[in-house]
């Protein structure tokens, strides 16, 4: 009896069930999933939700957001990279998508995914990070900070969202451009990194503008410079690194990807839908509330943007190298 | 004071408006469901309902989400007491004595005490939140990596008081748990430790699958096949409420748990999980009959359950007073505010008084709602035990798998649960206690990270631990506790073998008879 | 402690079985596991006292576990003997573990409802030997009911199987 149940069950699971999933019809005829490789409440999640809601209205087809978290995003990204290229599983990724394969290479491990496994659909938003120091710190400008850092190499500390994380990369680009050495204290996410500087345990932080602006207004933090090509709209008095003569440019961007191999008509359809999505008033309204600027780029332009960004990031990862070998 | 009362009046006028009241009740109900089900804890519950809150106004959204959070803390004890399955990580300690009480037919009183303790802790800690939030928040932020390291080392000391068996076995289990906590990407260097090609292990192994496996699944494996299946409980009405003696025994544990939980809860980070562990250890330590712990002592339910509820309110202190994302759950709630165009920051209380005071008032209301909701449910839940075990345990298994899977939508977590279930089964066969493993898994990543962060801050100088007043105070307290427990060796010449739990029972009897 | 001594005559077998106490076995197993961890950490940099590397804590903890494991094994001579542990629930436990493993393999292929349905039928009918009617009703109610509560009401993403079941 038992054996019979087991045998039928096993046969079904491993032989028959995969066949059911083959059916192919007009796209889309079932819910589309946008996988977010980060926990709810993060930038990627908060961007993906209004995108999904607006896409649903445009497509008249359910679009679901699923958080596939783990390993600093590697779990969710490799999930989409390895899922069936049929346009039903999409990815909302952040800049870190270019970092993880490079970090894997650095440690000689089997990469969780490679960038070739994904094709870009569209860039949704790009937010330049800003450099903040504590409100009671002596540095009033980047120049003062750099001068002090040159005097006391490796003494001024900064927190980050994690080793090889986006905030770490931004700081690495700045300190490389300025020729200084700072002390890195990694934390487990952007939230703890912000808490650390507010508590006075580190001196500086690179952060997305939206979360630090209230603390800047309360004089707890002081902005020194931004990483963008243009100044941040809500912080017009803060200069960019480019203006100050440091070659550092960095954005926390959110873009959508599909697995490589997705049929061309499906990709075209998705790109059309996203183009309409970003013009929806509800979507614009949601992004304004989040203080995240929409920076829509269609696939060809996004590909160029991504190539350039990925090059900068991989160079930064290579410069940092393995931490413990530089001692 | 007058100002506070005026503000509170404002708050109640917000919180008692029909919509806000409805959301508080809905939040509490969903929280209770989410908490009762194993695995899906408050974080998963809030994350799942976050999108639903986007359509509401900011105050309603935060009231709903907070309701889910503290509702889940109420509900978390239910499966721990009835089935030895921790509803969320904070109720691991409740499993030990709560389930023993169930086996003795005292499930009703255990559930009732958990609900009443949670109510008292919830309400008292909201008073603390209301009156002390700004000064306490400033203090809480001073907890940097060195203070955290000291706190977690104190947490490790708790182990010594946690279990009744042999100390060398407890310590071995703790070391095993800490080792399991080492799996994953090293946060300081990026090395991926002990992954064996499984990407999902990057963030380490979760506490939930470990706890559900070691406690819930191992219990099923042990009992399902017994020749005489556990007898069906026929709870009588008189057995639903605690006896006068049980009330008296619970008073002080609830009071201590409330204060302790609130203080641990305000510290940014994930330390609030250890509130219930610390409370259990404290109760065991101060009890005149520590040997009753593990055998169904009601103090072992009352203390930890109160502690984890007041830790919940404590966690709101830095979040509301300073707008700091002081832990995973406050971070999600702050995101919910940002979606509504409110930038949480140090000026939140001044700029959004309706939000802050409405939120405070809704917590008073929510705690009453939860008490009214939970006490009658005690009767209902106890009746679950009437289901014959051959049908009950398959259902429990389903909820274990479902709950563990739902946290991250990850099959790997289910695998971890199964492996831990098998491990727990073997360990319990060999007379080991599994609670230290869970504590180890909770503490290890936090301890390692804060320890190495401290050294990164000081460029490898250990003096950082003694140059910071809070850290040195806590380390001193820990040292004092260690010396205190060693004292009897020198003064009363207690058999050291007994202290280490190495002596066998017959030796001890001999000694006791002397 | 009741030790088996009939005079001083001990057969080699019973001598061995008298030596195999629960604590000796478990202590040795823990110590071996600790050695395994240390061996597996060899590829990770150990770091220094001032700058601990990724292998620092694991090796330290494994050494602790090794010490406790050896301690348990050395002092475990008078613990219960291995043979005295009764394994009466063993077949049940194996069956339950088996169905857990199977459900996990099937979860993302068959979808939640079918997996749980099959799993419950196996447990209630195959292991617990209940009647068919009860089994089917119970399994249907629990698998579809829990799916409705979680997927539909609480919006927990659960895997769907063929034909969207």
What does this structure look like?
The complex is a heterotrimer of chains A (327), B (514) and C (165). Chain A has 12 helices and 11 strands. Chain A has 327 residues and is α/β, with parallel strands linked by helices. Chain A folds into 2 domains: 165 residues, D-Maltodextrin-Binding Protein, domain 2 (3-Layer(aba) Sandwich), CATH 3.40.190.150; 120 residues, Periplasmic binding protein-like II (D-Maltodextrin-Binding Protein, domain 2, 3-Layer(aba) Sandwich). Chain A has a 6-stranded mixed beta sheet with strand order 2-1-3-10-4-11, with helices on both faces. Chain A has a 5-stranded mixed beta sheet with strand order 7-6-8-5-9. In chain A, helix 6 links the parallel strand 6 and strand 7. Chain A is globular, with a radius of gyration of 22 Å. About 2% of the residues of chain A have low confidence. Chain B is globular, with a radius of gyration of 23 Å. The longest helix of chain B has 35 residues. Chain B is 73% helix and 1% strand. Chain B has one domain. Chain B has 22 helices and 2 strands. By secondary structure, chain C is mainly α. Chain C folds into 2 domains: 73 residues; 75 residues, no CATH class. In chain C, 64% of the residues lie in helices and 0% in strands. At the B-C interface, helix 2, helix 3, helix 8, helix 9 and helix 16 of B face helix 2, helix 3, helix 4, helix 5 and helix 6 of C.
Which structural traits does this protein have?
heterotrimer; A: 327 residues; alpha/beta; D-Maltodextrin-Binding Protein, domain 2; 6-stranded mixed sheet; 5-stranded mixed sheet; 12 helices; 11 strands; 43% helix; B: 514 residues; mainly alpha; two-stranded antiparallel sheet; 2 strands; disordered C terminus
Please state the structural category of chain B: mainly alpha
Q: Approximately what portion of the residues of chain B adopt beta-strand conformation?
A: under 5%
Helix-strand sequence of chain B: HHHHHHHHEEHHHHHHHHHHHHHH
Number of extended strands of chain B? 2
| Beta-strand content bin of chain C | under 5%
Number of helices of chain C: 6
Count of DSSP E strands of chain C?
0
Number of helices of chain B: 22
For the largest sheet of chain B, list the strands in their spatial order. 1-2
Largest sheet of chain C: none
Total number of distinct structural domains of chain B: 1
Largest interface: B-C, 68 and 71 residues
Overall morphology of chain C:
flat
Cα Rg of chain C: 25 Å
Count of domain modules of chain C: 2
